[in-house]
Design a protein that fits this description.
The chain is built from 7 helices and no strands. The chain is mostly helical. The protein has 2 domains: 52 residues, no CATH class; 52 residues, no CATH class.
Length: 134
């Protein structure tokens, strides 16, 4: 789900446009990405890239966080994707923000499972994170 960038870079093909963006926008960001101080900072840097919308920037932030070069706390920051937004809209009439719903669900996950007698299928040995709730 990458937004169009053909109007910003005049290239002959879609793949040439993407490679131009990588060369002009992503590669210069690498030193800043390596120095990012949090998952949110990493996300905000990635959002500067022309074809990175909120969903892709969040996903890539999480993906980079799985590498040995980044190990931020994934329970501090989340951006709700379109699927999470649609689900939240189906479940709630009113709420502060999508991210607030995700945080509240995360904070009360075990209590909600107990209350509704749910047995979640979690990955053994891995703690639950906001991205899992999202």
């Amino acid at each position: 789900m990458m937004t169009g960038a053909t109007s910003r870079y005049q290239t002959q093909s879609k793949h040439e446009t993407r490679l131009t963006i990588v060369a002009k926008e992503l590669i210069p960001l690498i030193p800043k990405l390596l120095k990012a101080s949090s998952l949110q900072a990493l996300y905000e840097l990635l959002r500067q890239i022309t074809f990175f919308g909120p969903f892709i920037a969040m996903q890539y932030s999480i993906d980079l966080n799985y590498t040995p070069i980044r190990k931020f706390d994934e329970s501090q920051f989340i951006v709700a994707g379109i699927g999470a937004r649609r689900g939240i809209n189906k479940c709630f009439d009113s709420f502060d923000t999508y991210e607030h719903v995700i945080h509240r669900t995360y904070d009360h996950f075990q209590q909600l499972c107990d209350q509704y007698e749910l047995q979640p299928k979690l990955i053994p040995g891995l703690p639950l994170h906001l991205i899992d709730i999202q």
